[in-house]
Specification:
Blueprint (H helix, E strand, L loop, with lengths): L1 E10 L3 H19 L2 E7 L4 H7 L7 H5 L4 E6 L7 H15 L4 E7 L17 E7 L3 E10 L7 E7 L2 H17 L4 E6 L7 H13 L6 E6 H10 L6 E4 L1 H14 L7 E5 L7 E5 L16 H14 L2 H16 L13 H13 L4
Parallel strand pairs: 1-2, 1-3, 3-12, 5-10, 8-9, 8-10
Antiparallel strand pairs: 4-5, 4-11, 6-7, 11-12
Helix pairs in contact: 1-9, 1-11, 5-6, 7-8, 9-10, 10-11
Bound molecules: 3-isopropylmalic acid (IPM) and magnesium ion.
Magnesium ion binds next to helix 8.
Length: 357
């Protein structure tokens, strides 16, 4: 039997509630499958630790995570700690330290969840957004000078490297190739940004040569928002820079009916380091402790994690079970139901144990 070492970092807000739900689902899957087990180690890193010690994670945090097969991450962010501190104190050091350069964000309309788009059918919206996750607008390059004076300046420099762009393009083209429609849209802004973005376009065209069976097109990011709303069925796989994909993936989540069900995988495709899987929704302090956090995004990202670990059957079974539970109407209030986190989780585990899933 295979054993996967999983590092769980529930962190802040509803993170611990959804991670607990996700671990129950994974446990039920492992028991049903019989071919693998999970050895989970939990880390108490996050904003509480920051308030006590001045750091969200220990200095050798990434070192401690290195030997794991994957990281299962809840959410980070607290009302009384600035967002840039929590982000740069935990999540980004892991993403960047482990060179998880491909951020993969699947979007579909789950059964029982209503898209705000009039007349759109479930099959019309089936996307995967590939977000460049190591550089671009999130490179952390910049500074402030003449602080507090009238002539104060702040710079925020985007960095695009040939290596960084080429590898994310290759990842996106290969992912598009693995999906039935073999269709990729490259998002850009090379009309206004004439250096990094023009190089981005050139490299897309170069990499496209390696994938002659993939149909691809290019969209300016502003026009892309319109196409996502007006013509969702014309899209399949999408690749965009760190910031563009950040924005587009919120729109994608909203169009699919709820950002509360959206998952994300921060992946090191070369598998030199553990990859990290998390729900997109964040810490949601308004509902923390109420027992009503939607665990679906965490189930979905658990499925991404299983897929990455090579447990494709269990990954697919988990998504079939999620769809069955959503279709049966057992859902949390954010998506129109009245179930608790635990009730959704129990229904899911029950479905996983079922004959037909
Ligand atoms: C996301 C989030 C983060 C991001 C926030 C929390 C900084 O919005 O994963 O999309 O912008 O990367
Ligand atoms: Mg975002």
């Amino acid at each position: 039997m295979k054993t996967y070492k999983i590092a769980s970092i529930p962190a802040d807000g509803i993170g611990p509630e959804v991670i607990a739900a996700g671990l129950q689902a994974l446990e039920a899957l492992a028991r049903r499958d019989g071919g693998f087990q999970l050895d989970v180690t939990s880390f108490d890193w996050g904003s509480e630790r920051y308030k006590k010690t001045g750091a969200l994670m220990p200095e050798d945090g990434t070192q401690q995570l290195k030997g794991f097969d994957a990281i299962f991450f809840g959410a980070v962010g607290a009302p009384d700690v600035p967002d840039h501190v929590t982000l740069w104190g935990l999540r980004l050091p892991i993403c960047q330290g482990f060179d998880q350069y491909a951020n993969v964000r699947p979007t579909r309309i789950l059964p029982g969840i209503k898209s705000p788009l009039e007349g759109v059918k479930r099959k019309d919206l089936d996307w995967v957004i590939v977000r460049e996750n190591s550089e671009g607008e999130y490179s952390g390059h910049g500074g402030r000078a003449h602080k507090g004076l009238p002539e104060e300046v702040g710079t925020e420099v985007s960095i695009f490297t040939r290596v960084g762009v080429t590898r994310i393009m290759r990842y996106a083209f290969a992912l598009a190739q693995s999906r039935p429609r073999k269709l990729l849209t490259v998002v850009t802004k090379s009309n206004a940004q004439r250096f990094g973005m023009v190089m981005w376009d050139e490299i897309a065209a170069e990499v496209a040569q390696e994938f002659p069976d993939v149909t691809w097109d290019k969209m300016l990011v502003d026009a892309m928002t319109v196409r996502m709303v007006k013509n969702p069925q014309s899209l399949d796989t999408i690749v965009a820079t760190n910031l563009h994909a950040d924005i587009l993936s919120d729109l994608a989540g909203a169009l699919a009916g709820s950002l509360g069900v959206a998952p994300t995988g921060n992946i090191d495709p070369e598998r030199r380091y553990p990859s990290m899987f998390e729900p997109i929704h964040g810490s949601a302090f308004d509902i923390t402790g109420k027992g009503i956090a939607n665990p679906v995004a965490t189930f979905w990202t658990a499925s991404q994690m299983l897929e990455h670990l090579g447990e494709g059957d269990a990954a697919k079974r988990l998504m079939r079970a999620v769809e069955a539970v959503c279709a049966s109407g057992v859902m949390t209030p954010d998506v129109g139901g009245n179930a608790t986190t635990q009730e959704v989780t129990d229904a899911l585990c029950e479905a996983i144990r079922g004959e037909n899933i």
